[in-house]
Structures are given as C-alpha cells and as structure tokens.
Design brief:
A hairpin with an 8-residue loop joins β4 and β5. Helices cover 51% and strands 11% of the residues. The radius of gyration is 21 Å and the shape is elongated. A six-stranded mixed β-sheet has the order 3-2-1-4-5-6, sandwiched between helices. The protein is α/β, with parallel strands linked by helices and 272 residues long.
C-alpha cells in the first residue's frame, strides 16, 4: 500500500494522469489504479520505468521503492489473516520493516511491552465484550509483535511513558506488578529504551499525545501510527511527519533520562 502511495505521489508531482502513464507502459488505467491503491503488485523493473517516466532524480528513493517492490515477506502475522481485522496485520508488518520505533503513551503500557494478562484486560474492556474466539487472537497477536525486539537484529525501540500509564490498574495489583517487572526486564536486557514523564513534571501539557513513529529507509518513507475511533490511522504525508517529529522531540524534553526512569519504575513496582 505504501509503495503504491509513493508511486502515485511521484506521478502527481510529474503532472501525469494515470491513463497517460498506462499508455506509456502498454497497460490500463484500471491496472495503474490497482497498483497505486496497493491492490496489485508491481515489479522492480516497472518501478524503475515509472521513476524514469516521472523524471525522479532521487536515486536513494528509487532504490528504496525498488526494495519495497522486491520484498515478498510473509511474516508471522499472516496466520491471523481472516481472523483479525486487516489493520492488526498492517501494524505488525509496519513495525517489522521499521528501521527504528519511537513511541509515546500516556494511558496504557505500550503494546510491545505488554504481558498477556495486561493485554487481555485491555481487550476485555471493549464494548460490546469480545467472545473468547476473538479476544484470544488479539492477545496472541499483541504478544507476537514483540518479535521485532527479540529477533537477532532487533529494531531500535524507544518509548516515553507517562506516570499515569504506569499507575493505572487495568486489572489486579498482581497483574500490574508483573507488568512493571516485565518493563524492567526489557530495560535490563537492553532491548528497549524507556523514559518516564512523572506527574510532578511542570509544563507538560501533552497528555493527549500518543503515537508510534516508525522509521523508514528514508525519512520521507517514515510512518506515524495513531489510534483513532475507527481504528489505527497511518500517517505518511511529509508535512505531518515533520510535525510529529517535532512533537516527539518536545515530549522527550519532559521525560526523565533512562537510568532515572528505570529507578522510577522500580520504586513504583515496590509500591505495588
């Protein structure tokens, strides 16, 4: 889908209509529409031909798009196709291809760090209540997403967590204690960088800022994931990406340093 979006943007920047490009490639407007909508694949050779027709002189971008066209990864998330809504698979695939992950959360422990019991409590709070046949695949999928942190070459992951998210008891105190211990475990293993914004921090008015910022092979191919009432929204417009980068930096200035954050979480764990 992202490859198709980028090809459409290149075509529009070149001032060409889909039918004009289709004629140049001895194709059809319908086929071009399917490619740009992410409904049909496109070969590496055709990506290069399209880039040439669009007079794209950005070699790094062309190579990144060619690599996207060549990728035929069918990851662990594919076993959930037809079981979970497609957006769940899209999130896992986006994280899998990320060059880095930066997240801000203010209401829940980040999904990548959740324990099964914590995730079960979160999904179990949905209205209407999910039957076990739908609840358990969601929990399993959420735990499966940790693969990006546990593989041989983990994706660099940094998260800023507000104290509220650490203190909210989504389930029992036992579940909360185990969850905080899990976060500490991930910190000690060096798989993640966690920074905390305490309640006592003055001048932090960003409680509504939650996002996952996923790095692409190039900055213009980054993606921001944000939860919305209709599901997860994927944001990739360059102006919006710049805005969210600024927000990340602004939130980061309010957070404790990693060592201070580890000690902060350790104290909260003892309180439970």
């Amino acid at each position: 889908m992202r490859l198709g979006t980028e090809l459409r943007r290149l075509r529009e920047s070149a001032g060409l209509k889909a039918r004009e490009v289709a004629a140049l490639l001895s194709s059809t407007s319908a086929q071009m529409s399917q490619i740009e909508a992410g409904l049909a694949g496109v070969s590496e050779q055709r990506v290069r031909r399209l880039a040439a027709h669009y007079a794209c002189a950005d070699g790094a971008l062309i190579e990144a798009l060619v690599a996207m066209a060549a990728d035929r990864t069918r990851g662990w998330w594919e076993e959930y196709r037809g079981v979970l809504p497609p957006v769940f698979l899209d999130v896992a695939e986006t994280e899998h291809h990320g060059t880095f992950l930066r997240e801000v959360v203010t209401s829940h422990i980040p999904g990548l760090l959740q324990t099964p019991d914590y995730a079960r409590a979160v999904f179990g709070y949905m209205v209407p209540e999910l039957p076990a046949s739908e609840l358990m695949p969601r929990v399993e999928h959420r735990i499966g997403r940790r693969a990006v942190l546990e593989r041989e070459a983990p994706v660099p992951y940094e998260t800023v967590i507000h104290e509220a998210a650490l203190r909210i008891l989504v389930s029992t105190r036992r579940v909360a204690r185990t969850q905080l211990q899990k976060v500490l475990e991930e910190i000690e293993h060096g798989r993640v960088t966690v920074r905390v914004i305490p309640f006592s921090r003055e001048g932090f008015a960003g409680a509504g800022i939650e996002m996952m910022y996923v790095g692409g092979p190039l900055p213009r191919l980054d993606t921001v994931l944000r939860d919305a009432p209709h599901g997860t929204a994927f944001i990739d417009a360059e102006s919006q990406l710049a805005r969210f980068r600024d927000l990340l930096n602004k939130v980061g200035k309010a957070a404790l340093q990693p060592v201070e954050s580890r000690d902060f979480i350790h104290r909260l764990t003892k309180e439970l």
